[in-house]
Write a structure and sequence with these properties.
about 280 residues; alpha+beta; 12 strands; about 35% strand
Length: about 280
């Protein structure tokens, strides 16, 4: 009988407490909206979308074959590359650089500046050396030779403009001290079965991004060429730099490639080209 009385008393107290809290919430009026948050892109750790319409391995083999061709064709093009770094906080400024990317008969890629970099940056600083680092960022082609280094997890379907795509999470099987691998997500067009977008970072056994750049996560879009090949043309990255007793500084990097033409290795120029650095090493 004592236990039953105690149980009834406890339930009665809980009901009174709930009613009191409801009354207080009504007296206070509508709750204030939560404080603004930075827009941070996150990838679900374990998606469960169900199987794709066609076997996963078939998709992987097909986009790897498309990457084999895209990587080869990419080296045949000369194009203009514009680099922009923006301070989106106040006060803010910009760093601008542009150049021509091309391949010489020796098979190496070079970058010829079209003009001196311009800077109105107020808080941060970027130099010519940083341009060399930016143009040397890895161009991620997930070729038949490379897919064995990664695990793939199908994450579902997504709409990119007028494209229907299959999304895969990509993670390296092993890390290396001498080479950086891609970790993130890829979007594969369901018609061409070719990669049309990537989002992620380049990782190694040693922490950091392997460069002096503050940027870590890179989002790259591709365009279709000759109705066959999907080549990277636009990369952006956002980063927030924290300084003591100051608001975070929002930086944005944009690398935009345009004016694609078949390489003319004999084209003369008075400005010496800059060799494109190899993939960042540790």
């Amino acid at each position: 009988m004592i236990r039953r009385s105690l149980l009834i008393s406890t339930m009665f107290a809980a009901l009174i407490l709930a009613a009191t809290l409801r009354a207080q919430a009504q007296d206070q009026g509508p709750m204030a909206p939560p404080p603004p948050r930075y827009d941070v892109k996150r990838l679900s750790s374990i998606p469960h979308p169900g199987p794709p319409p066609i076997p996963e391995q078939e998709i992987i083999q097909k986009f790897a074959a498309a990457e084999d061709l895209a990587k080869k064709v990419y080296a045949d093009y000369t194009f203009t590359q514009a680099i922009r770094v923006e301070e989106l906080s106040t006060p803010g400024g910009k760093f601008l650089a542009s150049g021509t990317m091309f391949t010489k008969p020796d098979g190496n890629r070079y970058w010829r500046p079209l003009q001196q970099p311009e800077s109105t940056l107020k808080v941060t600083s970027f130099r010519v050396e940083d341009v060399h680092t930016i143009i040397g960022l890895p161009i991620f082609f997930l070729t038949s030779e490379e897919i064995g280094n990664y695990t793939f997890l199908y994450a579902g379907q997504d709409k990119l403009d007028d494209l229907n795509t299959y999304v895969f999470q990509v993670k390296p099987k092993l890390l290396s001290r001498t080479k950086r691998y891609f970790e993130g997500a890829i979007w594969v067009d369901d018609h061409d079965l070719a990669i049309v977008k990537t989002y992620g970072k380049f990782v190694g056994e040693i922490s950091g991004n392997g460069t002096t750049l503050p940027f870590t996560m890179f989002e790259t879009y591709r365009e279709n060429f000759q109705q066959k090949y999907w080549l990277p043309t636009y990369t952006n990255s956002d980063e927030f730099i924290n300084k003591p007793d100051e608001d975070p500084i929002h930086l944005r990097l944009v690398v935009h490639s345009t004016d694609f033409k078949i390489t003319d290795s004999a084209s003369p120029s008075a400005t010496p080209p800059v060799p494109v650095p190899a993939q960042p090493q540790n």
